[in-house]
Amino acid sequence: MFDAESFQYAIENTQVIVAPQRRIETFGSTSFRFYHVSELMDSVNEVRVRDGRLHAERPQIIAPNHLERMMLEGFGERAEQFMQWLQKNAGHLAVLKYGFQFRKTEVTESIVHSPLEEVIDRLKEAVDYSEDPLSAIIQGVDEGWEVSLLKFASDMIQESSAGNMGDFRRRGLF
User: Fold this and answer.
1) Where are the domains of the chain?
2) Which of 23, 37, 52, 60 has the fewest CB within 10 Å, making it most exposed?
3) pTM for the full model?
4) Residues 6 or more apart from 122 whose CB is under 8 A from it?
5) 45 DSSP 8-state letter
6) At 17, which helix (H) or strand (E)?
7) What are the phi and psi torsion angles at 86 (to 5°)?
8) Neighbouring-strand partners of residue 48
9) Cα-flanking dihedrals φ and ψ of residue 13, to 5°?
10) What does the angle CA 52 – CA 104 – CA 24 come to, to the nearest 5 degrees?
11) What dihedral do alpha carbons 13, 16, 35, 10 form, nearest 10°?
12) Could you tell me how far CA 122 lies from the centroid of its own chain?
């Protein structure tokens, strides 16, 4: 079982070696190609490479009145007061909702018998050669590789949100 300590370890040991050159699209879905590399435990010069796709759905604006329905269940009077404040200041606030789908069926994996640094260098060359602006190389732990992928998704949301919000404003959608 993957416990809280293992989860934290996976997060802390996730490193994006090559980040995508583009952010999450504002008005369409985005498909990132990822290579996840991890050293195998108790093995020398054995690296697992996972190659797959992470799909981000189009971000959506969540209005304050929708937040009220989502957030107030089980909360008290102070939460209601906060929601009233949100509604009064709705013109200045917006929250974006991002959805990701992860399809394991698109993931392939292989074991490479080389030092980690050599494997990463070869992957960097492959990404450069492909000229795919949505490719990423992520280094993490083998057992917690999906946690690394979720950390990557979270980072992409943070990096994309300001630009997405600007796109919505330019089109008069917020």
Assistant:
1) 4-57+101-150
2) 60
3) 0.79
4) 114
5) S
6) strand 15-18
7) -60, -45
8) 38, 111
9) -105, 20
10) 55
11) 20
12) 24
Only one residue has tokens 């992860």, namely 102
Grouping H, G, I as helix, E, B as strand and the rest as coil, residue 59 is: coil
Give just the sign of the alpha carbon dihedral 25, 98, 152, 1: negative
As its CATH architecture, domain 4-57+101-150 has: 3-Layer(aba) Sandwich (3.40)
Range 52-86 burial, b when 16+ CB lie within 10 A, else e:
bebebeebeeeebeebbeeeeeeeeeeeeeebeeb
Helices 4-12 & 145-170 angle (0-180, nearest 10) = 60
Q: What is the pLDDT of residues 45-99, one digit of tens each?
A: 999 999 999 888 888 877 655 655 555 555 566 566 666 666 666 555 566 777 6
Angstrom CA distances, 154 to 11, 19, 75, 166, stand at 11, 13, 27, 19
CB 35 within 8 A of CB 135: yes
- pLDDT tens-digit map of 127-144: 999 999 999 999 999 988
